[in-house]
Design brief:
Largest sheet: 8 strands, mixed
Radius of gyration: 23 Å
Mean pLDDT: 96
Distance between the termini: 38 Å
Number of strands: 24
């Protein structure tokens, strides 16, 4: 059907998919370079969310190093990095109590002195304003759904803005075929596990010789709390309960802004026990007296979830391909022990912009921007990722307590020795999907019922994400084989999709006799975290983008 559709085409020097920190920084840097050179460069940014920031979710404690380079006067310009970190707190939780380990000699690179607590969504909204002020064209509500190729196999651009496809996959009465956006270079900055990035990585073999990418799921709530429990500038990270030593993860809590507490929980998706529900682990975590005391008298005002790249530098794909590049979390640039990636994303966008601008100025188009990868490998981003490259593998191999100690020692040595480590570079081994164990080898987990004060159910949580999908469209969650959930995943793994999904998208329903199980997909609930695409043990679920503007509408996240 797509081959027969006639579309209008728009021509740009650079088309950027995704209005996150990497994509917006790339757009801004392109325009800055053009202004400095007295040249013209046309730049378009496509954003699948209803507005810039609608799909952005992060902790977030932001290292300003990237912003300092992009806008040295960002404070004068009013960037919403509003609350400076005043205190770091590290806590080991147990079922009955806690141990404050903040007194331990944590390396300086793990501390947050000089960093800022903020809403990354609001930072992106501000970056979009700066970009538009420089002449960048930004199109929210325009999901890029297809990659276009030139006859020589290079990327030509993307298709965006397709609307009105009915449930049957055929054009409906309100059908809009979308538009082709052609570019000399196409930047892919979709974030974690983006649908176009997956296709491009596979087509060009960008992951050849690399370790499999590793992921976590981050689930976050935003609370507004009374003055009595609010400590502006506090950052707290916990390890341990409710997760066991073999399951990686932990929590974050940041106090900022107008009595806001950003509280969240990360579970590494290489967990073995298929009965684990990351959402329910997060909910019972908040009932711990050492945590609930910070929420007492407060109100939960927002909820969301997002995948996190955790593979580090050994899992980075090749960053360039014919006609474009991968940016930020589309490649996987999160520093796991620092729980930070936005500063690296900003820098990656700047480096890509510099490589593309030089190429365009010399008359090139559609070729490989090898200079981007070269400058990236020589940058402080790559140095930072090299330093902590063994943190995740050590954590996975030895468990939380020994792994954190060994990972911290290894990264400190690497930091002091220019990247050298006595371990060399450790491998990740299996993918997260392959790490899932059999249901029969683990005991099912009975989670406590939500109390409605500190813990809540999935549907009331999804309501707070303001998620919406037009029901009269094909489900964007595609099963490669519709029989696998019931015939394979249910008997072997207990069908973990109903547990790892933080939005109640997947259910196994039975008839009145408790027989004849049926797999149901409630795609309208999807918050676009991509966990299903990552963790499904049969790799049977393919996350694709729904029509533009659909999905969550995160405020201040």
């Amino acid at each position: 059907m797509t081959e027969a559709i006639e579309r209008d085409a728009m021509e740009y020097d650079v088309v950027i998919v995704g209005a996150g920190p990497s994509g917006l920084s790339a757009a801004i840097r392109l325009k800055q370079l053009a202004a400095e050179a007295g040249a013209e460069v046309s730049v378009a940014v496509l954003e699948k969310g209803s507005e810039v920031g609608a799909h952005i979710l992060s902790g977030a404690v932001i290292d300003p190093i990237g912003m300092n380079e992009l806008f040295p006067n960002w404070q004068e310009l009013g960037a919403p990095l509003e609350t400076k970190v005043t205190r770091d707190k590290f806590v080991m939780l147990g079922p009955q109590g806690d141990l404050d380990i903040s007194f331990l000699p944590f390396p300086k690179w793990m501390l947050n002195h000089g960093n800022y607590i903020a809403s990354l969504g609001n930072v992106c909204r501000w970056l979009a304003e700066q970009a538009e002020g420089l002449g960048v064209e930004i199109y929210p509500g325009m999901a890029a759904s297809e990659v276009l190729y030139n006859e020589d196999g290079s990327v030509k651009g993307v298709v965006a803005g397709v609307f009105g496809i009915g449930k049957d996959g055929q054009p409906g009465p309100d059908f809009q075929p979308g538009v082709e956006l052609h570019a000399k270079y196409t930047f892919i900055g979709e974030g974690v596990r983006g649908s176009l990035a997956k296709q491009i990585q596979a087509k060009y073999g960008l992951c050849a010789g690399r370790d499999p990418q590793k992921f976590g799921i981050g689930i976050k709530e935003l609370w507004q709390v009374p003055d009595e429990v609010f400590e502006p500038g506090l950052t707290q990270h916990t390890f341990g309960w409710p997760l066991d030593n073999a399951t990686g993860g932990g929590s974050f809590m940041y106090h900022f802004g107008d009595n806001y507490v950003a509280i969240g929980f990360v579970v590494h998706l290489n967990y073995k026990n298929p009965w684990i529900s990351p959402f329910d682990e997060f909910q019972r975590f908040k009932t711990h007296p050492s945590i609930s005391c910070y929420l007492e008298g407060g109100k939960r005002i927002a909820y969301g979830a997002r995948g996190i790249t955790e593979g580090g530098i050994q899992s980075l794909p090749q960053l360039y391909f014919p006609g474009g590049v991968l940016l930020g979390c589309s490649a996987g640039m999160v520093n796991v022990p620092r729980i930070k990636g936005s500063h690296n994303a900003i820098k990656s966008g700047m480096l890509a912009a510099e490589a593309a601008f030089a190429a365009i100025q010399s008359g090139r188009a559609g070729d490989e921007l090898t200079a981007y990868e070269e400058t990236f490998r020589a940058s402080w981003v790559a140095k930072e990722l090299r330093t902590v490259r063994n943190f995740k593998p050590l954590w996975s191999k030895f468990g939380t307590v020994p792994g954190l100690v060994l990972g911290g020692i290894d990264a400190t040595i690497a930091n002091m020795m220019g990247g050298w480590s006595p371990w060399g570079t450790l491998k990740h081994g299996k993918s997260d999907a392959e790490s899932t164990g059999l249901a029969k080898d683990f005991k099912p987990i009975v989670y406590p019922k939500p109390d409605g004060v500190y813990s809540f159910d999935k549907l009331s949580s999804v309501f707070l994400s303001s998620t919406n999908h037009d029901e009269n469209q094909p489900a964007h969650l595609k099963l490669k084989d519709a029989s696998i959930p019931i015939e394979v995943n249910l008997p072997r793994f207990g069908e973990p999709a109903r547990l790892y999904c933080p939005a109640g998208v997947y259910e196994v329903l039975y008839d009145e006799q408790g027989q004849n199980p049926k797999f149901q997909i409630n795609f309208q609930n999807c918050v676009h975290c991509k966990t299903c695409d990552i963790k499904d043990p049969s790799q049977n679920i393919n996350w694709t983008t729904p029509q533009g503007g659909d999905g969550p509408n995160y405020p201040n996240m």
